[in-house]
Design brief:
Length: about 130
């Protein structure tokens, strides 16, 4: 629930990005510097549950238009908790860490509460 000025601030800070089918957008274990919102398309979320081999990754979710990802690393300052792969042509908007902190600072508590919803499918590593 942003007012019109806050919405304009967010919109001004967003950068459009496109991905092709099977592009890896974020990879589990890497440092996270971007937050993404899906504008169009579908992405798959996978996670390695302690195995070293990427082929052992299991599907833990699907993301579609309006879903967002990448915030866990930015909010908790941890490596990426999962891998996100484009399942189709994917259009997103993104915020880098600096713009995320500046623009979404007031929403951090809401985003942190939403992280708890993931605990049933994604193991959050410390």
């Amino acid at each position: 629930t942003l007012d019109s000025f806050e919405r304009l601030q967010v919109a001004d800070a967003l950068e459009a990005v496109k991905f092709h089918q099977n592009d890896v957008i974020i990879r589990q274990g890497e440092k996270g510097d971007n937050f993404y919102i899906i504008v169009e398309g579908v992405a798959k979320v996978t996670q390695n549950k302690g195995q070293a081999d990427v082929d052992q990754a299991i599907d833990v979710g699907t993301l579609t238009t309006g879903n967002y990802f990448g915030e866990i690393s930015l909010l908790l300052d941890r490596p990426r908790a999962a891998t996100v792969i484009a399942q189709s042509s994917l259009k997103c908007v993104k915020l880098d860490r600096e713009r995320f902190e500046r623009v979404l600072g007031p929403l951090k508590e809401i985003l942190k509460r939403n992280i708890q919803k993931y605990s049933s499918v994604i193991q959050l590593y410390s």
